[in-house]
Write a structure and sequence with these properties.
Number of helices: 22
Radius of gyration: 28 Å
Shape: elongated
Structural class: alpha+beta
Protein name: Knr4/Smi1-like domain-containing protein
Strand content: 5-15%
Number of domains: 2
Distance between the termini: 31 Å
Mean pLDDT: 88
Low-confidence stretches: 428-433, 522-528
Helix content: 40-55%
Largest sheet: 5 strands, antiparallel
Number of strands: 9
Organism: Emericellopsis cladophorae
InterPro entries: Knr4/Smi1-like_dom (IPR018958), Knr4/Smi1-like_sf (IPR037883)
Length: about 525
């Protein structure tokens, strides 16, 4: 099995090819509670297989995904819109639809539902085409108006003007209609003149905003997606493959240039072009997957889907596998590796100093006399370390010890807890309306960006979750937030939150990544 495949850079969103680990994909199926990220990445691999013209392998992987996705994803997990895959099934009736696949009609089927689907595809494809021919966009971004003579492109080498003429020649204002073939041919000729000019790969492009004098990339001025479609419509399939290849090599999947992968895969006639692109191999498509690698990848991912469906989550940081001592040591080690610069600035001079001193048993009991029963896993942590230090944003500021607990009966998340977590709160006129089990914990450092930490004690959670069928004795809830964050981050326990950070930080160490503001040289020194 190949160790990796090529796709756009995962973290930065950069469109150029970057290696993606198969073992990491497998891990992202087995480790988390919700493997939505792995499912999403696997559907992406289906699209890459289609782009590589491995239709059998793409269909096999898609079938395996739809067979197991409802089993392995939580009921409330968002499902994935697979426009490119639906179009593949629409245009390839020889491939059987998986039972749970959303597309239920075929091209050539004359039923009412099929005709609606066909009409929808034609409408969406025309709208995508129209987006690429907007001449008002050129006025807005390049301060360039439509020329009186759209044929002026023959007499100029000015990229914006050539692009404007190509857009204008390809344009038709009547919904669902395209210009005459001769006009499409001229639009394609203008595009070929534009693309024949020297072009800078997106990875090397240095953008400088100079108002009306701003220089734009050629594919930004004229989407290659449009030019591929023009070549298909005038019957120049080899040209379509060449333009697509040039775009993949120079632009990658640059969404700002209209080059999202799924947009390419729903172009009308694209499946006549893909065999020609595949013949170029990796030289013509840096995201190309070899046939033998494709077979091995599909087999490995399909087997992983089955393991997750049959045996559930296989979490390597589960409490029965990794105790608090090891978990906290790994947290401190990885945190120091990726964020030592900020720690040193705040007076923390080693990984060991990130962890606070253990809390005495009498202090834990004293805290419980004030706030009530504390969660067992939190008490276990305090016996080993009285919390840990974070940073301004790092680790949400960290966590202090139980001597800093405060009641927060007016917690702002009450409505969210009612709605999202299905907890049964007492009525306002209920004599039992005592919500003092909401506790605010202090962050581990004074200087953090307004982070706040909360938990519901097990006793109160037992009361609030009494109507839930899945309630288990000892359960509670922890969450953290800051006023500026986009939402609240919920966890089933403090340990779950800490373990999530250990996973994230150790992955950063593995990839040689550091936190913002940390010098790579500092990190490399720490790691050695």
């Amino acid at each position: 099995m190949p160790a990796e495949y090529m796709d756009a850079c995962r973290e930065s969103g950069h469109p150029v090819p970057a290696p993606h680990s198969i073992s990491r994909l497998v891990s992202s199926y087995m480790e988390p509670k919700n493997p939505s990220k792995a499912v999403r990445e696997s559907f992406r691999i289906v699209e890459l297989l289609l782009l590589s013209n491995h239709l059998d392998h793409a269909h096999s992987l898609a079938t395996a995904l739809y067979r197991h996705v409802d089993t392995i994803l939580p009921k409330n997990a968002s499902r994935f819109s697979q426009q490119a895959l639906n179009y593949f099934w629409f245009t390839h009736p020889a491939y059987p639809l998986p039972p749970n696949a959303p597309s239920k009609t075929r091209q050539g089927d004359r039923s009412e539902a099929a005709l609606k689907t066909e009409s929808r595809w034609k409408t969406e494809q025309w709208n995508n085409y129209r987006e690429c021919t907007r001449t008002g966009w050129m006025l807005e971004h390049c301060n360039l108006r439509e020329p009186e003579d759209p044929h002026v492109w023959r007499e100029t080498d000015n990229p914006p003007m050539i692009a404007m003429c190509a857009r204008l020649l390809a344009k038709d204002k009547t919904p669902g209609h395209y210009p005459p073939t001769e006009q499409l041919r001229e639009a394609l000729a203008a595009a070929e003149k534009l693309y024949a000019q020297p072009q800078v790969p997106v990875a090397d492009w240095k953008f400088e905003h100079k108002e009306s004098q701003t220089v734009r990339r050629h594919s930004y001025l004229l989407y290659r997606r449009l030019v591929v479609e023009l070549a298909i419509r005038v019957g120049r399939l080899d040209t379509a493959a060449e333009v697509l290849s040039q775009g993949l090599v120079l632009d990658g999947f640059n969404t700002s240039d209209g080059a999202a992968l799924d947009r390419f895969l729903v172009l009308p006639g694209i499946y006549e072009v893909l065999p020609r692109l595949a013949a170029k191999g990796r030289a013509g498509n840096p995201f190309y997957i070899e046939d033998s690698d494709a077979a091995a990848m599909v087999r490995e991912i399909s087997q992983t889907l089955e393991r997750r469906a049959e045996h559930g989550r296989q979490w390597s940081l589960a409490p029965e596998r990794v105790g608090w001592r090891e978990l906290l040591d790994r947290l401190a080690s990885a945190a120091w590796a990726v964020n030592s610069k900020e720690y040193k600035k705040n007076g923390v001079m080693s990984a060991a100093e990130i962890l606070n001193s253990p809390i005495k048993e009498e202090d834990i009991k004293a805290a419980e006399e004030v706030v009530g029963e504390l969660p067992e896993d939190l008490k276990e942590m305090y016996r080993i370390a009285g919390g840990f230090k974070g940073g301004w944003h790092f680790l949400e500021g960290g966590l202090s010890d139980c001597r800093d607990f405060e009641f927060d009966p007016d917690c702002e998340e009450l409505d969210d807890l009612r709605d999202e977590k299905e907890l049964s709160f007492p009525n306002d006129d209920d004599d039992d309306n005592n919500l003092q089990g909401f506790i605010e914990l202090s962050p581990g450092v004074e200087q953090c960006d307004s982070y706040r930490h909360y938990l519901i004690t097990p006793a109160l959670y037992r009361k609030l979750a009494r109507e839930r069928d899945d309630y288990k004795e000892g359960e509670y809830m922890y969450w953290n937030k800051a006023y500026w964050t986009c939402g609240t981050f919920w966890y089933g326990s403090v340990r779950e939150w800490v373990a999530k950070h250990v996973e994230r930080l150790e992955r950063m160490v593995e990839d040689g990544e550091v936190e913002d503001g940390q010098d790579e040289d500092d990190c490399s020194t720490v790691l050695t």
